[in-house]
Amino acid sequence: MLLLAAAAVLVLGGAVTVAALASGGSTAALPSVRVQRSAAAVPTPTPLLVQVAGAVRRPGLVSLPHGARTVDAIAAAGGATAHADEAGVNLAAPVADGQQVVVPTRGAAPAVPGGATGGASAGAGTRVSLAAATAEQLETLPRIGPALAARILAYRAAHGGFRSVSELQQVGGIGPKTYAGLEDLVAP
Questions:
Q1: Which of 19, 76, 100, 129 is 20 to 30 Å from the Cα of 61, by its Cα?
Q2: CA distance 14 to 8
């Protein structure tokens, strides 16, 4: 709209100048027109807020520009640690606001896509990865509900992941009986 008005003023001013010059007149009496652009015309997008957890130097929240990729999120968290398994993460994937990026440790079993369907499938050789599991995947484990899954994820984010399954005992709400039921179903 602003550009259209500026163009109209320039065309009108040009027509008056041509008419004045053609009639032998002068353009000295013509008013000058100054067009300014408004700084508020282009909105600035808000940055993406992404949680980076697992085997990174500084796990936590990072702020990224729109169009950022997983590799950018990991770099913003100080980069991967020496124990990271970057092959377990799609580094080229675009990130979204509110997303959690988990970098697994080398040798850790990958999270089961969609979660384990119960103790039988987890005990059959497939373990849920504490380094990469989502809350939904953790909730498929016995005695793990939404609140306990959230505490496991918070512990993982605060401590840079799990170095051993026995660290689960340090998560509030996991007592000896719960731990005994989980230790063979999960991997660090």
A1: 129
A2: 10
